[in-house]
Amino acid sequence: MNKLYFVFALLLIGSTELLSQSLQKTDSYLKVIEFWRNEKYRLKAEDLLDKINNPDKYKQIDTLTLPEMQKSGLESTVSTSSVVESEVHAAVNPTNPNNIVASPINQNIDNPTSPMSCPIYYSKDQGDSWQTSSFVTKPKIDNILVVGGGDPVLVFDGDGKLYLSWINVCVSTISLPENPTQLIPDSLWAVMHYAVSEDGGETFSFDNSMYLGKLVKSRYTGSGGITYMLDKQWMASDVTKSSPYYNNIYTSAMQMNMELSSQDYGINMIVFTKAADSSQFDQNGVNITRGQNFQVVQFGSLDVDLNGHVHFTFLGVRSDRIGNLYHCVSKNGGVTFSVPQPIAQIRGTLAQLGNAESVVGMNQTRLYPCPYVAIDRSNGIGSNNLYLTWTANGVTSNALRGLDIYFAKSTNGGHTWSDPKIVNKHPEGEKIHAYYSSINVSSTGVLSISYYDRRHSTSASTHYYLAVSQDQGETFVEFPLTSEPMNFDNIGSRNRNFGIGEYNAIVSDGKTIIPIWADGRTNDGNINIYMAKIDSDNLEQYLTSVPDIVSIFSDFFITKLYPNPANEKLNIEVTLNKMGELKYTIYDLSGDALISGILGDNIIGTRSFDIDVKSIGTGQYYLSLSSKNGSVVKKFNVVR
């Protein structure tokens, strides 16, 4: 999760001397605190203000566009913004499964007034078309620059109300008395906000009082001030109508508290609850790790079972410097949680503790275990099973395989867990990396895990994979979602080494699995958001051919394709939100281009075109349309 930091090393506490006055914190603890300082901020306020105060010094940078789809019907683009978009989260509406909402971190450091935001994309037709919400993720304060934050997380409650949380690190500005046109930094702000949408992500209700924990404000000095902040949050909703806590919303976060007078000094895990009958979250939350001798905690993830029990997992490190995954549970609506119990040890994916894996093209300090939990609420064979996935190079020791995607499950509410197993099927004896997994359980009990994987290359070339299990995690079918690899040597070059972020998303609607991920296939440093739709009833087809997809690009999509099957002509109806020349290519199932052409320049709106298909025989084909504003692929048939 991204916390932008000032490049001139803005200190979050007065000095390391304050730390030495505390409880003799370990070297590991100090390294994590130092990393946290540097991770929070990436944009220098003075640089942004210089661009505002002296616009003539800066030239307009040419925009970039996404290349054509690379012979694949499996994937489609959510966004082809020329601005780097990464670390996407998503949610599907339980009252309307066609309603999907996604939000990435958008980093446009060339725009000094809005260098960082979390745009919200929403679809009402299961991804056939996408629109962008007008909501802007920043405080309602004049003359303020968002210089950090991010971490968009989305969750629907059982009635279809959508909650969005995110982090803002801001600098307010004032005018120089002697020169009112020149702005200078004034105050530094840090806050975790939330907003609510009752129309599926189109619009949001928000005001500055909608935040979790504390809103911290201090005088900007360029060298310190923030002593409290929430980070790396996760959200879950109780969507079981028979639960006594139906429609409660739970948000977990890592709490950084450097106030020496506080009993919660240091790093702790907090869970905030918004009861269904309350208008806002409990501001204090429940401190889960207080007094548990944790030196470091990270990556809290939570989900709610069919009984309304809130299950919380996280990475914790005690004085032995060994990372363990922990689990605890609340059975009273988030009022109290059980004492955290260990699940499994973890190795090689937290650089601040030492012995982290070295992965070409990735900043080692951004190499994380990213453990995420999901619960089966299908009322089927695996009902109430807990599933956990994470990245590591081993459990009790380095397995010497590279990074792998690990998986464990509990069938008894978290009391005991299965031995960790590796999901990705890499060749034996080779050091290959897989990392940053996400997890989902569909309403029919289908378990899916997605992740980045380098098995096709010994360098930084990386594909995005999906592993699906229909037997409660006993076996997995895995296959690549991407037709074109991304090179991690170039990812991050335009967002100051943040890269793709440490989480992506999977949502599902019954038998349809919908992974959504950040993709840097342009290999020029730009990152865009892709999506695939997978039929869990016919997984074998993805091992041998490419399935049908729909357009999910917000500025260009196909609304109709008919007749299907076609005979002599194929009619397509296209809607464009931006003008651009349309090109088309027809591929066979092996990816060979058979017919191509140009449909001409087209104006904004809906237009229809005919494409001659008399020259191709009976069979199944893919139609790819592309313009400077994006690309889409649709499957169709020809019958003679």
Q: Describe it for me?
A:
By secondary structure, this protein is mostly beta strands. It folds into two domains: 75-544, 6 Propeller (Neuraminidase), CATH 2.120.10; 556-638, Immunoglobulin-like (Sandwich). It is built from four helices and 38 strands. Strands 1, 28, 29, 30 and 31 form a five-stranded antiparallel sheet that branches. The longest helix has 14 residues, at 27-40. The chain is globular, with a radius of gyration of 24 Å. The model is unreliable at 2-24, 60-73 and 546-554 (pLDDT under 50).
What secondary-structure arrangement, pairings included, does this model have?
Elements: H1 16-20, H2 27-40, H3 45-53, E1 75-79, E2 84-93, E3 96-107, E4 116-117, E5 121-123, E6 131-132, E7 144-156, E8 162-176, E9 179-197, E10 211-219, E11 228-237, E12 249-257, E13 266-274, E14 286-287, E15 296-304, E16 310-317, E17 323-330, E18 341-346, E19 372-375, E20 386-392, E21 404-410, E22 421-422, E23 434-441, E24 447-453, E25 461-469, E26 477-480, E27 486-487, E28 505-509, E29 512-519, E30 528-532, E31 534-535, H4 541-544, E32 556-562, E33 569-576, E34 580-587, E35 593-602, E36 605-612, E37 619-627, E38 630-638
Antiparallel strand pairs: 1-30, 2-3, 3-4, 3-5, 5-6, 7-8, 8-9, 9-10, 11-12, 12-13, 13-14, 15-16, 16-17, 17-18, 19-20, 20-21, 21-22, 23-24, 24-25, 25-26, 25-27, 28-29, 29-30, 29-31, 32-33, 33-36, 34-35, 34-37, 37-38
